[in-house]
Amino acid sequence: MDNLIIAGKTYSSRLLVGTGKYKDFDETRASIDASGAQIITIAIRRTNIGQNPGEPNLLDILPPSQYTLLPNTAGCFTVDDAVRTLRLARELLDGHSLVKLEVLGDPKTLFPNMVETLKAAEILVKENFQVMVYTSDDPILARQLEEIGCVAVMPLASLIGSGMGILNPWNLQIIIDNAKVPVIVDAGVGTASDAAIAMEIGCDGVLMNTAIAAAQRPILMASAMKKGVEAGREAYLAGRMAKKLYSASPSSPVTGVISSSSKDQSA
After folding, report:
1. d(Cα 111, Cα 127) in Å, to the nearest integer?
2. Calpha distance 88→81 (Å, rounded)
3. Beta-sheet pairing, 9-11 with 4-6
């Protein structure tokens, strides 16, 4: 079976989903069920997983026994904030080490601050975190993050929450071609065709939140995203036909077909 392997653990689903922006926990759980996702991201600064006693706890509907939880540093703009947040997550989740690092550089675009991201990644790897890292689509920076020891690189397709799809497939292709760790497209996916395209060019997986949660029918969109990721992966493995500009090719073979001229000659 064609599985996704991250930090030595095997997953049958290549779709990773977030837990924010849903109208309530019931919709959250139903959407995640429909997506088939096994890795679930949690924004520690915005979601209660036990740090706020007395408030609804996300772990009551998404127990760690059923999902791989991926605490993330959404909303962090400095190295100190990001590192502190993931240390808290490890404490709350009984030593859990798989995390998603993002250090943002601009509150409007949510584009990553790559200088701070590199610094935070170094600290966290040294503290034995297994770091999946949100990055720009710069191939050199993606390689540096891998060299630091990150277990997956997660380049943006376009800005977080924009739904603009993959704006620079060429840079993503360079990252994919050179990476020895999984490459997960993170941010910018808007619909199932975007997810399929990411998988068709060779990404190992796709992470999304807003594309599902902000859809008019989130549960149905989650199901569509599941199918899009699966179809894109199958197309990648199948190997698409070569593109042929100005060279039409009939779907049916023509060798041996009786032509009108041959009929005339035999008459």
Report:
1. 26
2. 11
3. antiparallel
Alpha helices in 7-109 (DSSP H): 25-35, 79-92
pLDDT, tens only, 149-178 = 999 999 999 888 888 999 989 999 999 999
CB 189 within 8 A of CB 212: no
Per DSSP, the three-state class of 221 is helix
In the set 9, 23, 100, 126, the catalytic residue is 100
State how far the alpha carbon of 184 is from the alpha carbons of 98, 100, 135, in Å: 15, 11, 10
Residues 67-76: tens digit of each pLDDT: 999 999 999 9
Q: Which two tokens stand for residue 80?
A: 């100190």
Amino acid at 130: Q
pTM for this model (two decimals): 0.87
SS3 68: strand
Q: Can 21 be counted among the known catalytic residues?
A: no
Distance from chain centroid for Cα 97: 19
Which of 74, 77, 86, 133 minimizes the C-alpha distance to 105? 77
